[in-house]
């Protein structure tokens, strides 16, 4: 728990104080209900990276994945881990979108970012009382200040009016290298919408394709070939006065 934030009075969620008809004007439908399938039971995650098993190992592994996902905005993971991590990423963004509309949330985040590590945060500068639950949740999963700042300053404005999932999950073809038993379920690509990477599906737009070295060399070779053909055609024309009045084809 964050030092100094535990004594903040917890207010009711914003959705409980706003009529249901006006919620669509404040945020999209994705902030009210997850737009991805939610299983009845948590998926079992294999041990990896020396984390170990159990609830603690599971939380540590999910925390590492969420940090990498919010930092890079696209990851390639084993399919069970990708599907389970997607649920936590969707839920964290959803909570941040809903909490961003509460008065004082932005000031609370800025106060935490300006504070020094290990020191108690003084909340006297806040004009209004605000719940610290969402900030504590973001700090627990992301831990790094620049990722918490990115969540509230980049992802919240991007996903505020979303009516679809915040993430996409693509299943990759199974590979037999180094052995067919490497991964029973295969691998998948988990990404956040609006990321700067090329699309996984569809036409990949390359605006600087003509500047690639291979394309520059091919273009130069084609120009040289065309110039040679033009010189041969011009040299094969008759030099008589009668022929000079007509064009050579």
Describe the structure in your own words:
The protein is mostly helical and about 250 residues long. The chain contains 8 helices and 3 strands; from the N terminus they run H-H-E-H-H-H-H-E-E-H-H. The protein has helices spanning about 15, 55-70, 80-100, 105-115, 135-140, 145-160, 215-235, 240-245, and strands at about 75-80, 165-170, 185-190. A 3-stranded antiparallel sheet has the order 1-3-2, with helices on one face. Helix 4 (about 105-115) packs antiparallel against helix 6 (about 145-160). It is elongated. Residues about 1-20 and about 240-249 have low confidence and may be disordered. Belongs to the bacterial ribosomal protein bL17 family. This is Large ribosomal subunit protein bL17m. One of its GO terms (biological process) is translation.
Structural category is: mainly alpha
Assembly context of the chains: single chain
CA radius of gyration is 29 Å
Question: N- to C-terminal separation?
Answer: 85 Å
SSE topology string: HHEHHHHEEHH
The count of strands amounts to 3
Q: Mean pLDDT across all residues, rounded?
A: 78
Taking pLDDT < 50 over at least 5 consecutive residues as the criterion, the unreliable ranges are 1-21, 240-249
Strand content: 5-15%
| Major beta sheet, strand line-up | 1-3-2
Note the main sheet: 3 strands, antiparallel
Query: What is the number of helical segments per DSSP (H or I, 4+ residues)?
Result: 8
Residue share in helix? 40-55%
Q: What is the overall silhouette?
A: elongated
Family: Belongs to the bacterial ribosomal protein bL17 family.
Keywords: Ribonucleoprotein, Ribosomal protein
Organism: Fasciolopsis buskii
InterPro entries: Ribosomal_bL17, Ribosomal_bL17_sf
């Amino acid at each position: 728990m964050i030092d100094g934030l535990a004594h903040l009075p917890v207010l009711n969620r914003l959705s409980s104080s706003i009529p249901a008809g006006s919620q669509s004007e404040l945020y999209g439908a994705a902030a009210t209900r997850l737009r991805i399938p939610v299983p009845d039971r948590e998926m079992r995650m294999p041990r990896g990276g020396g984390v170990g098993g159990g609830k603690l190992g599971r939380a540590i592994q999910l925390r590492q994945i969420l940090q990498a996902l919010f930092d890079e905005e696209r990851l390639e993971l084993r399919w069970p881990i990708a599907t389970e991590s997607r649920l936590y990423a969707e839920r964290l963004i959803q909570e941040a979108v809903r909490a961003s509309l509460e008065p004082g949330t932005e000031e609370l985040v800025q106060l935490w970012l300006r504070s020094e590590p290990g020191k108690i945060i003084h909340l006297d500068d806040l004009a209004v009382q605000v719940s610290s639950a969402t900030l504590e949740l973001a700090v627990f999963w992301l831990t790094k200040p620049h990722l918490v700042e990115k969540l509230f300053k980049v992802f919240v404005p991007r996903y505020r009016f979303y009516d679809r999932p915040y993430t996409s999950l693509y299943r990759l073809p199974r590979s037999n290298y180094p052995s067919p038993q490497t991964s029973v379920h295969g691998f998948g690509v988990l990404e956040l919408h609006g990321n700067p990477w090329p699309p996984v599906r569809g036409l990949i737009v390359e605006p600087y394709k003509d500047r690639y070295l291979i394309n520059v060399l091919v273009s130069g070779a084609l120009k040289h070939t065309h110039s040679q053909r033009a010189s041969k055609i011009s040299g094969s024309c008759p030099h008589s006065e009668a022929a000079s009045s007509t064009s050579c084809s």
